[in-house]
Amino acid sequence: MSFKVLLFLSFFLASCKIIRPLEYNIPKENNSNLFPRRIIKKGNSTFHFINDNGKNKLGELIKVDDHYIDASGVALDSMVKLHNTISFMIVRNDSILYEYYAPKYNDSTTVSSFSVAKTFVSTLIGIAIQEGKIKSVHEPITDFIPEFTDKRFSQITIENLLKHTSGIHFSKKIYNPNSDNAQFYYTTTLREKMMESNIEEAPGLHFNYSSENYQLLGLILERATHQTISHYLQEKLWMPLGMEHDAFWNTDNKSDSAIEKAFCCL
Questions:
Q1: Contact 249/32 with Cβ under 8 angstroms?
Q2: pLDDT by residue (tens digit) across 187-205?
Q3: pTM, full prediction
């Protein structure tokens, strides 16, 4: 085999990991069908908010200062359209006070929630602690991820991951297909990507919002509960809360060993 062929093959293999980011570009709310997913089933009983179907006219009555268009006193109905908002809701106690959906969307449309998923993950961490499956937020992550042999990882606690103060390096350049952000979103080998983590600084020093922190929390949940985080969510939150529809959580691949993208994609 010639040197030129070897050089081409080396370049191609190195570039494979950027093919999907280049093909699909920036993540979008309708990306959920691009990836495999696990089903989170609703329960037998459903909770419904009281809804007056907009009779209160709050969309006209509520005025906001909109720094995006440098204007004040903008009606809420206008604001959500100016910002290309897909959905917007105001809930108080047991009632929906305001509800808006863009054209082609409604209350049954499946979209990716992106970082809203992190809230569910942190809630499940709290439940796992309450159930004794995790000792506390002060437990070192190496109790669950012993593969991290660098002793500095043993100084990182679950609390550091929750607060994005782990000190783990994570690049977030949105237009760079080789950034950690793009690689975590599009990779089919999330478990391997997590193990490539590098420490940038000692934990607890600085806040650095990172998808990797919550992906590691997803792995910890999986190992602490001995089930997928989709099933744990279904058992502890989705069914008990009386959710109206089944949910889906995207995974990195179709195999039995696939893991949910815990930082997004619910």
A1: no
A2: 999 999 999 999 999 999 9
A3: 0.86
